[in-house]
Design a protein that fits this description.
The protein is an all-beta fold and 123 residues long. 0% of the residues lie in helices and 48% in strands. It is built from no helices and 11 strands. The strands form 2 sheets. Strands 2, 4, 5, 6, 9, 10 and 11 form a 7-stranded mixed sheet that branches. It is globular.
Amino acid sequence: VQLVESGGGLVQPAESLRLSCVTSGFIFMRYVMSWHRQAPGKERELVAYIREDGGSTTYADSVKGRFTISRDNDKNTMYLQMNNLKSEDTAGYYCNSVVGVGTPWVRPWFSDWGQGTQVTVSS
């Protein structure tokens, strides 16, 4: 399994970024895919996930209305459009798959994480 994140950078508050996650080594269209983030000194948190066919998405309350997760099953790629960025969005962003959807125990599936992409929001 390979997960390669890109698209991060340094932006000012209220600006936008679009992250990409290019995958290989598994049948992408069969997996619920997810974005996670980890800020310095904090635990990794689930940001959003998207069902196999892209028909259903779920977001953390902290990003709801600002972030949009999407996927292209033909390209084995997932995206995260981040609008109206805030300083508290500063973190390393990582993609993975999640299991346990529909239960209180949604959790990452792949044990190996990619290198992530850094998002820094600062004026």
